[in-house]
Amino acid sequence: MSDITAEKTLDVARTIMEEAEFCVLVTLSESGTAHARPMQPFGPQEDFTLWFGASPASRKVEELREDARATVCFQEPGKGAYVTLLGEGWVVEDQELRKEHWRPSFERFWPKGPEGDDYVLIRFVPYRLEAMHMADGIAPEPFGLKPAVVTRRDDKWVLTGEGG
């Protein structure tokens, strides 16, 4: 793992995230059951924060209101590449942020637009990032069986080893 750095891991992870149109958001129910659903994110921002449009009546919003822990996963199957982010998600109802995080294609789901009471945001802030990209050398020995892991410490990402 000697040639894998936090910077390289983050650069490769950002590219995977920017190239993938969709990701999977995983939230936890009150009973501890994990629920996964495909989502179209806004981001990643500089600090890898992601934003999602959502319905306030959705299961994911309900679950995040009860337990902020969440996982987001991006994948590029043809490249042997993925990024998994562990973090927390919060429901945001701010009108200006909803306008900022809006796509015209959302109108079919939320016909009232970003001003409507049926549209909220989820702000996901990761504290751990796991990445693997065989072609770009983010594949710790032996043969990339474990991803490279970076963890946020005091607003800085630090290479902390290999995941499992």
Task: Describe what this molecule looks like in 3D.
- This protein is an alpha+beta fold and 164 residues long.
- It has one domain: Pnp Oxidase, Chain A, CATH 2.30.110.10.
- Helices cover 17% and strands 39% of the residues.
- Strands 1, 2, 3, 4, 5, 6, 7 and 8 form an 8-stranded antiparallel sheet that branches.
- The relative contact order is 0.21.
Topology (SSEs and partners):
Elements: H1 6-19, E1 23-28, E2 34-39, E3 50-54, H2 59-66, E4 69-76, E5 81-92, H3 95-100, E6 120-133, E7 148-153, E8 156-162
Antiparallel strand pairs: 1-2, 1-4, 3-6, 4-5, 5-6, 6-7, 7-8
Element string (H = helix, E = strand): HEEEHEEHEEE
The number of E-state strands comes to 8
For the largest beta-sheet, the strand count, sense and barrel status come to: 8 strands, antiparallel
Give the distance, in angstroms, between the N- and C-terminal Cα atoms.
14 Å
Task: Give a short summary of the structure.
This protein has 164 residues and is of the alpha+beta class. Helix content is 17%, strand content 39%. Strands 1, 2, 3, 4, 5, 6, 7 and 8 form an 8-stranded antiparallel sheet that branches.
